[in-house]
Amino acid sequence: MLRPAGLWRLCRLSWAARVPAENLGRRDVTSGVSPRGSTSPRTLNIFDRDLKRKQKNWAARQPEPTKFDYLKEEVGSRIADRVYDIPRNFPLALDLGCGRGYIAQYLNKETIGKFFQADIAENALKNSLETEIPTVSVLADEEFLPFRENTFDLVVSSLSLHWVNDLPRALEQIHYILKPDGVFIGAMFGGDTLYELRCSLQLAETEREGGFSPHISPFTAVNDLGHLLGRAGFNTLTVDTDEIQVNYPGMFELMEDLQEMYRNEDGSVPATYQIYYMIGWKYHESQARPAERGSATVSFGELGKINNLMPQGNKSQ
Predict the structure, then answer these.
(1) Burial of 98 (C-beta count, 10 Å sphere; 0-12/13-18/19+)
(2) What DSSP line would sit under the chain, residue for residue?
(3) How far apart are CA 235 and CA 283, in angstroms?
(4) How many CA atoms within 13 Å lie on the side-chain side of 240?
(5) Angle of the 222-232 helix axis to the 167-177 helix axis, nearest 10
(6) pLDDT of 289-303, one tens digit each?
(7) Cα–Cα distance between 189 and 221 in angstroms, integer?
(8) What digits encode the pLDDT tens for the residues 184-223?
(9) What does the pLDDT look like over 249-259, one tens digit per residue?
(10) Is 289 exposed, middle or buried (0-12, 13-18, 19+ CB in 10 A)?
(11) Which range has the worst mean pLDDT, 66-80, 247-261, 268-282?
């Protein structure tokens, strides 16, 4: 159970950035942000990307943004753990929607040779956290990536894909810029995120208005992620889910205009954040692949007799 002060603003504001810190290593800045008002022609544009850029830039200018960052830093550390689980180093990596560098702060130069940090908000890039890894800041929209094919050994993304209008296209672009045998590790909000808040809003609005309308951004279903990753070209897929519950001081901290809220026995208000983690690899001929159909020598019906099928010498070991 987490109790960071001020985290309730997550449901109303975009990610914030810390006051400037001295950057370690070399930092270059380039730009690949999409033209203002650009949208994907093949999808319904739920999110106003220009407004999202303004929100993130506004949040990055606040005097005390660090008290709003606990969830982002926690998820960033869990993505870094998944990077360390892969027994290799990555000469060139990209953090897509990096904010102020919530993943980079937990990685080291023995694992990452050079780190590109891309975000839609220039103020977030200017106020990034310290890291020992040489970095390059790139002003870029997650929906319009400015990188060439087969560029990166690793692409990571923590929570930023939630506000992408065309997720299939974004995943296809990530696959495109990965080198063969490169890996993508990402995290998105799950469908049970803020269920306490949503239930409270629905009950209150139904009681007062006789019906309700959505007040929370739509979420991707976990069953769809594997399909979307496969459709984008990824293989050897892994999708898992985690939950982080945060207890807030009271209902007004979670949502200022909410009149009634479920409460814990100690008077605090719970808010659950469900996180989907996904891992997908770009194909390379060196990767292990499943055996050809029909090549099995033992059927499922014979698995119960496996001990009888093993040589006597193997049984005793």
Answers:
(1) buried
(2) -B--TTGGGGGTS----PSP-PPPS-EEEEEEPPPTT---TTS---S-HHHHHHHHHHHHT-SSGGGG-HHHHHHHHHHHHHHHTSSS-EEEEEEET-TTTTTGGG--TTTEEEEEEEES-HHHHHTPPP-SS-EEEEEEBTTB----TT-EEEEEEESGGGG-S-HHHHHHHHHHHEEEEEEEEEEEE-TTTTHHHHHHHHHHHHHHHSS----S-----HHHHHHHHHHHT-EEEEEEEEEEEEEES-HHHH-TT-------TTS-EEEEEEEEEEEEE---TTS--PPPTT--SS-GGGGGGHHHHS-HHHHT-
(3) 7
(4) 7
(5) 40
(6) 666 777 767 666 666
(7) 10
(8) 999 998 877 776 777 776 677 777 777 766 666 667 778 8
(9) 665 555 533 33
(10) exposed
(11) 247-261
Place of tokens 């800045």: 29
